[in-house]
Amino acid sequence: MKSRSKIYAGLAAIIVPAASVIMALGATPADAAVGGSGPYPADYETSASLANHTIFRPQTLPSERLPILVWGNGGCSANGLSQGNFLREIASYGFLAIANGAPYGSGSTNSQMLTQSIDWAVAENSRQGSKYYNRLDTTKIAVAGYSCGGLEAYAVSNDPRITTTGIFSSGLLNDADDYQLWRLTKPIAYFIGGPSDIAYPNAMDDWGKLPAGLPAFMGNLSVGHGGTYDQPNGGEFGRVAVLYLKWRLKGDITAGRNFVGVDCGLCHTEWTVQQKNLTLDGDTPPSTPPPSTPPPTTPPPGGTPTCTAAYSVQDQWNGGFVANVNVTAGTAALTGWRVTLTLPSGASVSSLWNGVASGTSGTITVANQSYNGQLAAGQTTSFGFQGTGNGSGATATCTGS
């Protein structure tokens, strides 16, 4: 069950019109300037053949072909400059980034506009006389968006032309939309503003429902829902988005090391990192366990399915924490599981995702949801929760069925 309301989907829409007011007064916004920290200073333009969109590109097109990012704005705003600093930064590293909405546009957008962006880029790459003729890499396309724009990205992420999906401070609002997760086949990355981000519970709920085997990255930076998009060059979110796109769309293994492995570049930093099925040299993790892992054994007839629960604190602050519990099936498949969780004195659960809890403090039980109870032997799922107090010292035990 989704743990937060629809409030965040429109939150950025409250902020965006303020920029329109400044523009109406004649001020020159920072995101209208040429720049970015990459090797190709970037600017934006519009095209008569792609109405109601804003195109960010290197001012001088490099010899290399440009991979493509199509972007949904916060609040589903039709102002294509809503995250202008962020998108200009990405373009300056040799990408074509297309945002929904015209520069300084008003109103709202929809997910079909992202598909229009892809259609347009593919057509321009093939059209003789276009400045983009044979200058785009139409085999490498990312779809992404912030807040409400992330919902737009989800809606079209099954387009077979898409290489990867990026979800920025967003998460599905209703369980009825979970089919959009189940149909994912390409790598996905989440960049969320930490526990204070109003989209955080929904993003973490989505994380727990991703298809088994899907390559996925989750990064949380405690900056809240507003992110760092308006900072020079998009701030930290801009820096990390460039690295992710360089890895996924340009095959830059050095950039990829920021996301993969226990010692990844973002690990042990201000980012809180989770990974699923990630490898540097491909999207399918090794199918065989390492030599040090004993081979699975067949349980004796009539044996009781077993499981283990591993508790960890993901984030701790004065007065609260976020914890995660990994549930792993033993040598037999599970049809369900139940975790007994003993919290430290003074700690309590305020919200929980990917499980059904009984109780909020002391010793509580958490049972599986309908979608994560069936586990093959050795398979792992997880649930998480936000709590008050100090999360250190909790214990967790698992019973399978």
TrEMBL record:
- CBM2 domain ranges (all copies): 300-401
- Which UniProt keywords are given for this protein, alphabetically ordered? Signal
Could you say which residues form the signal peptide? 1-32
Where do Pro residues bias regions lie? Answer: 286-303
**Per the record, which residues fall in region Disordered?**
278-304
Q: Which SUPFAM superfamilies match?
A: alpha/beta-Hydrolases, Carbohydrate-binding domain
| Entry keyword Signal | yes
Classify the source by domain of life: Bacteria
Mind telling me which SMART domains this protein's record contains? CBD_II
What InterPro entries does this protein's entry cite? AB_hydrolase_fold, CBD2, CBM2/CBM3_carb-bd_dom_sf, CBM2_carb-bd_dom_sf
Has UniProt tagged this entry with the keyword Signal?
yes
- From the Swiss-Prot or TrEMBL record, give the protein name: Cellulose-binding protein
Organism (species)? Micromonospora solifontis
